[in-house]
Design a protein that fits this description.
By secondary structure, the protein is mostly helical. Helices cover 73% and strands 0% of the residues. The protein has 25 helices and no strands. The chain has helices at residues 9-27, 35-47, 51-64, 69-81, 85-94, 102-113, 117-125, 134-143, 147-157, 165-177, 181-194, 199-211, 215-228, 233-246, 249-261, 272-280, 284-297, 302-318, 322-335, 340-352, 356-369, 376-386, 390-399, 406-417, 421-433.
Length: 437
Amino acid sequence: MVKRNPLSDQEKRLNELARKYEAMRAEGKYAYMEPNDLADLCTWYSNNYENEKADEVMAFALSLFPDNTMLNIEQAYRLIDKGDIEGAEAMADAIEEDFSGDRQILKARLMIENDQFEEADTYLNSFPSDFFDPIMVANMYLETHFSEKAINWLKKHCEGMEDEEDYMSIMVSAYCYLSQYEEAIEICEKLIDKDPFSAHYWLSLARCRLAIGEYNKAIDACDFSITNDEDLGEAYLTRCNLFAILGNEARAKENLKEAIRLHAVTPDEMNEFDLALLLDQNRGEDAIRLMKFYLKNMDFSEEQKLNTYFRLGVCYGDMRWDKEALAYYDKVLAKRPDDAEVLIQIASVYLAQDNLDEAMNYLKKAVEAEPSRKYIYRAMGIIALVHKKYDDFRKYSDLSDEPLTEYEIKQSIELIESEDKTSIDMLLESLRNNIGY
């Protein structure tokens, strides 16, 4: 059996920093630490799901080095992650100009957070091509879900770097965001050829295999990941999910226990990452198995249970298992009778059945629960139009977020009166696919 790869020098350094910091704080003493060490330590705690300690380290670091550019930039990103965009902007404005490019990338990120997409592109492209670390820019685009921009930036600015691990790692993430898992797998395998002892490369390969339904190969990749790092909790978690999908509950529970022990998931959480992969690839039945496993084996709060019931309803609805979908939606409505999103999903089920009257009833309940969702009136207007209730059609159009002109209303009524079945069917099909149509 291959022996577990020893900790890398960086991992050893971070483990030692954590021990040093915690001993120092326990004794109430201060031993000097460089700003970059404190920044790395903050990131290390965040990556290990210890956010309170990460916040504590950052507060401590800024109390010692309040004007340190790197620390202030790091804190600004932490504020972005917490949704405090105004606080992050204030920090960015207070940072003195630097020539590393980090502050400029932060400012571009804040532009994107404020939906100033073209301004961010123009700003970044106003600098010389070698001003930024291209990996940092690509990573910023990935974090804001602009994967194609990340790939284009790398290809434009990283000529000759295609075989470097940082470059390939970003490309794997970008292809995964674009659901191009075959391309991601190809690069994962190249990364593993470069470093067969990297637990993280094997885990990336496992998740790509999971996404395309190659579950046994994914388990093999998880095995190699854990062999190389027996403390990588996320590998146990993904292996748990794979066994749960395959129906091996005993093995799934064994791995879940290890994932909890290693802080990859808390006893009342679900692994959102792997579930998102399944939902992204329309693997509804497998997603259902995974969610039911967590409902059975985790101590969910009532809110988490209701949210999981809702997701189960969506999965069953997408597969046209209407009876099961409605049963789970009813579980949610029993506790949250005014949940507009659930009411809309129920309306969608009835629309798929061509039960327009029942769909209309639930759309009315949804807009009563949340009057701000004026787009619902558009769907109600289409149903009224098809039923030749033209006064209601006009009323709902006027109430909607996109009222029709008198000419458009007249055209719509003429379409229905013409009994053009093809056009009417197309109108209803658009409505079935999207209530917001």
